[in-house]
Every structure is written in structure tokens, then in C-alpha cells.
Predict the 3D structure of the following.
Amino acid sequence: MKLSPVLALFLSMASRLGAACVRLGFVAIVFFGPAAYAQTIPEGFDPEAKTAQEEFFCGVEFD
């Protein structure tokens, strides 16, 4: 079965548009992903630091 020229052109353009969207999404993830992740970490964040409540309970001796 042979496709009409208009349908063939439409399918060709649709597949190219889909491929372009996939490439654009990949580029966005690669270039903007690390920047978005870096903004989620607070400045001066210390993972080993304890909160005031943790310091209080760690310093209390229970009998």
C-alpha cells in the first residue's frame, strides 16, 4: 500500500518534530538539571551539624 504524498510529508514532518522535542528535552535536562539541583542545597549547609534540639537531648544523661 502506497501512502499519498501529503500523508507521507505529514508523517515525515511529525517524526522530525518529535525528534526535535526529544533532543530539546535532553539538552534542557543536561544543561539546566545541575543548576536546578544546586539551588536546592542551602548555602552553608553542613550535613554533620546537629540542631539545637538534638544537642539538648544528646547532652542529657538518663538514669
In short: The helical segments are 5-38, 52-59.
